[in-house]
Every structure is written in structure tokens, then in C-alpha cells.
Design goal:
Number of domains: 1
Largest sheet: 3 strands, mixed
Number of strands: 3
Radius of gyration: 21 Å
Strand content: under 5%
Distance between the termini: 24 Å
Oligomer: single chain
Helix content: over 70%
Length: 232
């Protein structure tokens, strides 16, 4: 069942990624009604929230846009920087949403920043620790009173950090999209039809994080089953 679930998640991931790129491409050729550029949109949105000290910079690539909290920069990609398409303005507003979250001290945002340095290590090492516990269960559990089970538990706790991280990230990304979409509406950058298009794009981007959460949760369930199956 686990492998079937992972195949379903993989297929869903491909579909969602494909939809996101199609929407981004489709709306990258349609200028927003107001004519505002992505850079101007960021500055207006930050000003509306009284956020200062954030600089807009250019970064290479496609859909590589990000907010860097340490440097206080919003980095816009080749297809976003200083452009006035629906795609560019929507993505820029989303990244500005992250800057607002940071400025306001959003709890979930702080949690993600705290967990981020440990996620890769915990997710990778946690799986191996669980497998080590399973091996110990087969070889020496009778002599060490269930040590394999407890070793596996440590691995599961480690991997759980990744699941929590992805869950918090999904919440943060949805919130940033809501903030960006709200700004597009209230600051009148787009027409009603374009506002609906922007919402499709922003929510499609958020769906990629939902898939990441589903994948990590499925792996955690698998690890729990492996750990549980070895206890005597």
C-alpha cells in the first residue's frame, strides 16, 4: 500500500508541477490592467504594511523567486523582475507577503525559520536511524531488552521534524499567497478577471507544498509501521 500511495503522490506531483508551469507561462504574456511592474508592486505592498529595510534584487532562473530574511531582500527571477505581467506581479506580491510575515513576527514563520537548518539532516538521517533500529531488533533485541525499538523511535522523532516543517511551510505559503492576492485586489493592480487568474496561479504554487507534506507524511507512516512491526 505504501508504494501505491507514493506512486499516486508522485503522479499528483507531476500534474501539479505541470499545471503551475502552464499557468505561469499563460499569464506571463498578459500585462496587468494597472501597468504596474513587479518591483513597484513589492514596494507598494511593503509600504501599505509599513515594512521598511527590504530591498528588491534580481536573481537568475525561472520561478526561483524568494525572500531572504537574513539579507532583507526579495529576489525576483528573470521572468518576474521588473515585469508587468499577471504572473510577475502575483509572484512578487507573494514574496512580499513573506516579508510582511517576517516583519510582523508571525509565529508559524518563526517556527519554520527555527526548523529550517535541521530539516535536511533530520529527514535523511532519521530514515537511517529507523533502519538501524530495525536491524538491531533482528540481531540483538533479546539481549538488550528492546533497544532496537527505541533506536527506531529516535529516528522517527528526527524525521517528524521534516513533517512538521512541511506542514508549517504549507500554512506559511498559503498565507503569503492570501496576503499577495489581497494586496492585488485592494491596491487595484488588476482587473476582476485578472484577479481570478492570479488566484489560480498562487494556489497552484501552494499545491506543490501540499504534495511535499503528503509525501513526508506517507514516509513517516511507513517508518512507524516498520518500527511497530519489529517490537516484541
Amino acid at each position: 500500500m505504501f508504494y501505491i500511495l507514493m506512486i499516486v503522490i508522485f503522479v499528483a506531483s507531476m500534474i501539479i508541477q505541470g499545471r503551475l508551469r502552464r499557468l505561469a507561462s499563460k499569464y506571463s504574456n498578459i500585462p496587468v490592467a494597472s501597468g504596474i511592474t513587479s518591483n513597484q508592486a513589492v514596494l507598494q505592498m511593503l509600504d501599505s504594511y509599513d515594512v521598511t529595510g527590504v530591498v528588491v534584487k534580481h536573481t537568475g532562473g525561472d520561478l526561483t523567486d524568494n525572500y531572504n530574511s537574513r539579507e532583507g531582500t526579495i529576489n525576483l527571477s528573470d521572468t518576474t523582475y521588473n515585469r508587468n505581467s499577471i504572473t510577475a506581479v502575483a509572484i512578487a506580491a507573494h514574496e512580499a507577503g513573506h516579508a510582511v510575515q517576517d516583519s510582523q513576527g508571525m509565529g508559524a514563520y518563526r517556527v519554520r525559520q527555527f526548523l529550517a537548518p535541521a530539516v535536511n539532516i533530520c529527514s535523511r538521517l532519521g530514515v537511517y536511524v529507523v533502519l538501524l533500529g530495525v536491524v538491531i531488533s533482528y540481531v540483538v533485541e533479546k539481549d538488550f531488552g528492546g533497544i532496537g525499538y527505541h533506536v527506531s523511535t529516535v529516528g522517527i522523532v528526527m524525521y517528524s521534524v521534516a513533517v512538521i516543517f512541511y506542514a508549517v511551510t504549507l500554512w506559511i505559503e498559503r498565507d503569503a499567497s492570501r496576503r499577495g492576492w489581497k494586496a492585488m485586489q485592494e491596491l487595484q493592480w488588476v482587473s476582476d478577471d485578472q484577479l481570478r487568474a492570479a488566484k489560480k496561479l498562487l494556489w497552484a504554487a501552494g499545491d506543490t507544498y501540499a504534495i511535499a507534506l503528503a509525501s513526508s507524511a506517507a514516509t513517516l507512516l511507513r517508518l512507524l509501521a516498520m518500527r511497530g512491526g519489529r517490537r516484541r
